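Title: Comparing notes on inverse folding

I've been comparing how different people in this forum approach sequence design from structure. To keep things fair, I'm posting one structure and asking everyone to reply with a full sequence. Here's the target:
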């Protein structure tokens, strides 16, 4: 399972636990309150670990792209025919500015990163 899906599932479980906790608080059911407090704490801990892993992987990918010797903005014609461009330039990585990695790199336009000039 991807990290993104796992984070979403944990957020859903956390939301359910918080709702059940509020119901238990209104009933003044101490054993149930303690159980959900413990479960919420565990879910928060796991969620923080996954978010850290996701940011670590994103930072690792960002460093790999920045270490590539050549990068430039892609023209509209190149963007329209990316298949041809990828066949012509082996190892090219195209990054759109609205993706996570594009935002991390603070890109303004679609950019190509490659090990050799293209």
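Reply #1:
Here's my take.
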């Amino acid at each position: 399972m991807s990290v993104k899906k796992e984070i979403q599932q944990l957020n859903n479980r956390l939301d359910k636990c918080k709702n059940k906790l509020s119901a238990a608080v209104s009933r003044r059911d101490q054993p149930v309150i303690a159980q959900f407090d413990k479960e919420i704490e565990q879910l928060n801990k796991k969620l923080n670990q996954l978010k850290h892993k996701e940011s670590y992987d994103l930072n690792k990918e960002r460093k790999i792209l920045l270490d590539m010797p050549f990068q430039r903005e892609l023209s509209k014609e190149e963007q329209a025919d990316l298949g041809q461009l990828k066949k012509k330039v082996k190892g090219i990585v195209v990054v759109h500015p609205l993706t996570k990695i594009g935002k991390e790199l603070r890109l303004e336009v679609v950019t190509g990163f490659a090990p050799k000039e293209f």
